[in-house]
Amino acid sequence: MSSIVSFSSSALGLTLRLPESGMPEILAFGAAGESEAPLIERSSRINGMDAAVPSCVLLPTGGMGFFGWPAISGHRDGSDFLLHFSGWSATRGDNSLTLSARDGVARIAIAITLNAHEGGLISSRVTLTNDGESAYQLDRCMAGSFATTGADLLVEHTTGMWGREFQTRRDVIGQGLWSQESRRGRTSHDRVPMLFVESGGERFGVALGFSGNHQIVIDSCDDGRRLVHLGELFEPGEMRLAPGDTYESPVAYAGSDSAAFHAFLREELVPWPEGGMRPRPVTLNTWEGNYFDHKMDSLKAQATAAAEIGIERFVLDDGWFGRRDDDTTSLGDWDIDPTKYPDGLAPLVDHVTGLGMEFGIWFEPEMINPVSELYKAHPDWVLQVEGRPLLLSRNQLVLDLSRPEVSDHLFCKIDAVLRAHAVAYIKWDMNRDLTHVGGRKGRAMTARQTRAVYALMERIRKAHPAVEIESCASGGGRVDFGVLAQTHRVWTSDCTDALERLEIQRGASAFLPPELLGSHVSASPNHQTGRILSLSFRALVAMAYHFGVELNPLEMSAAEREELGGYIATHKRLRSLLHAPGAAFRLDPVDGRHVWGAASADRIAVIVAQGPQMVAEQPAPLRLPAAATRFGGRWRIASHSPQAPEFIRSSQAQRDLLAGAVSFDLANLTSAGLPLPMLRPESALLLELEPITGDPTHG
Ligand code: GLA
């Protein structure tokens, strides 16, 4: 007998039919309350089979009347290529539902665990156990399947490359199969496992919690709906389950909108020391201001100048270890360079902490340069496939972290630096894609490597529970819901050009809340693009995120330092609003104008940034989303920054509005909108709105 089970979070609901045999049929999935089972049975003769074989199911398996893309497949040396589970049972836990079944012929047991999370997310993960007597070759096992209503489907995803991450693309896909596969061994810059789907007025997002090889497949069902599958991608032969072995998939998430994913990351996934996020410290990162040229006196003076303008965390980037004068040597040699630091790092760390700042330090633990002491001692520690050339990328190879002696060595090296110094933060970098990912037995092992990296991060966090970690991978190459279970912020992109950052940060914000996205004010001309941009534009574009500075403050004039100090003070004043749960909002860019901000009952911060020159004669009034104006009452513009905004032209009425002389109903900003003047290209404006005190309508 089949049975119906329902599962819901605060925002999403799922109704399933557990069949006598086969996979759980998705009767409904969508906004909670709208996901009950259909009123009447639909045609049972789906797929042309005489007995009903539903095609919209969780994790379909092939070969038994399901003709779509199988989400789970494998075999035992060529046989047992069919999987057909039966005997389904449902077990409820706190916010969870586990569906279990077994295939007695192939001798594989399955458990699908659904969880409800903060923000109304629903997650899915799968375990498969080989209870047969021979090895089972698992070719594929997705972590979860979510259903859309079908018809033309809009897929909103991001793509890009180094320095151009998170470029938003909207593709309408018709019938057939859409697939995104990444084989880079890291999340990647180009195929990010996070996207939104939209169809028939319904929209939801999906994200995979995994940083290794991954895939998202959208398939058409015979009943007109679509299945969105997310999971790990195995190389041939990679996932072989010995008798008794269990495969555990990563976690796949579905959420109703960006705010839901933000809430989940902020309140549940990110492993904040002491259980909750504290105000994000304004950071100076030394990379673009120094590169490999570390000079103690200068670094100390930079730290002093940084502290004077309000910086709270000083991060020493690449170049402090081995003989690391450029990127050709020393990865793997995590001992302090005695030529640059004859008395060790302590004098610098003490200087930084003496100024009241936190000290952070860069590591790239997974990597090794062939020119290094470590490689001389252990050439066999690198990922390699016998008889194949070692392929370098940025002059480096990758260590096999699945070997306990390698992970132990790295742990001891990192631990020693952290024990000897007051380190509050690690910038954990990963500057190459994985190739020839073979272990000692010559088998593919990206799956094991990825899990070993997480385990090393976790071990370091356990040993140093107060330390925060940033996930960096040539900029934003490892940004996903797997690594964010181990880390506390991401380096969004190596491109620090504020104009480029508009799109990069917009794309990343679809899934990540602003406080997890590192955003730094860097020098002008910009080191990546050569573009010259005003300090106010650079600072305001970074303002809402995890704000920082990526330049040598000694190379700024006193006036520039003072101006930057002003923006740092503004950020500190506003960060509790900008990073408050549920406060952030963002508009789709129109005519080169990007708008984002945060709203609370007593203050709304709006950042308006103009990228390229507008085409229109006048900008359309700026309409804030209803969520930002829900507080009601009469408000006014209390302040704006910079003091003299770069407008192309403005009327007296607009100047009065900006000066706070005009009050308005807040709700009016959603209907009529704020008639702002036109900004010059490559300039920005921060508006702070306040309710009019004593206004009886403001509750
Ligand atoms: C990568 C990072 C940069 C910097 C360099 C150091 O490119 O993304 O921020 O840390 O490595 O080599």
TrEMBL record:
GO MF entry, a single one: alpha-galactosidase activity
PROSITE patterns registered for this protein in UniProt: ALPHA_GALACTOSIDASE
Keyword Hydrolase: yes
Class of this enzyme: hydrolase
Catalytically driven reaction(s): Hydrolysis of terminal, non-reducing alpha-D-galactose residues in alpha-D-galactosides, including galactose oligosaccharides, galactomannans and galactolipids
InterPro entries reported in the protein's UniProt record: Aldolase_TIM, Alpga-gal_N_sf, Alpha-glycosidase_related, GH, Glyco_hydro_27/36_CS, Glyco_hydro_36, Glyco_hydro_36_N
Start and end residues of each Glycosyl hydrolase family 36 N-terminal domain: 56-242
Entry keyword set: Glycosidase, Hydrolase
Pfam families reported in the protein's UniProt record: Glyco_hydro_36N (PF16875), Melibiase (PF02065)
Record-listed E.C. numbers: 3.2.1.22
Hydrolase as UniProt keyword: yes
Protein name in the entry: alpha-galactosidase
Lineage of the organism: Bacteria, Pseudomonadati, Pseudomonadota, Alphaproteobacteria, Hyphomicrobiales
